[in-house]
Amino acid sequence: MTAAPDERPPKTWWQQIAGQWPLATVLTGVAIGLAVVFLGHWRAGSTLVGLSITLGGLLRLMPQQRVGLLAVRNRALDSIVLLGVGIGITILAWWSPPSQ
Question: For the chain, which residues make up each domain, given as ranges?
Fold first, then answer.
């Protein structure tokens, strides 16, 4: 019994890990933003966290096969939630008065 010509061979371990780059990009941005907040620059760090989550909302608009673990529910709900939270965090970071 041979495989059909349109079937792909299974992905290797490295291909499976590299296929999660959208989620890794968002989590890296959030981690760097939190590190910046920890260093005392809360506005810049919060902005980076918000922009990273907003980027996640934009990346979620890609096809289902490309977003990997970034997909939780359907595309519209994931995008709306991520964009709303990301834009909200960014606006709050710039709306709050600077610390004295």
Answer: 19-95
Q: Which residues of 49-67 are buried (b: 16+ CB within 10 A; e: fewer)?
A: bbbbbbbbbebbeeeeeeb
What gap in Å lies between CA 54 and CA 48, rounded to an integer?
A: 10
- For the full predicted model, state whether its pTM sits above 0.85: no
Torsions phi, psi for 50 (to 5 deg)? -60, -45
What does the pLDDT look like over 37-95, one tens digit per residue? Answer: 999 999 999 999 999 999 999 999 998 888 888 888 899 999 999 999 999 999 999 99
* Token duo for residue 5: 């010509």
Q: Which backbone phi and psi does 15 adopt, to 5 degrees?
A: -65, -35
- Dist CA 76 CA 73 (whole Å): 8
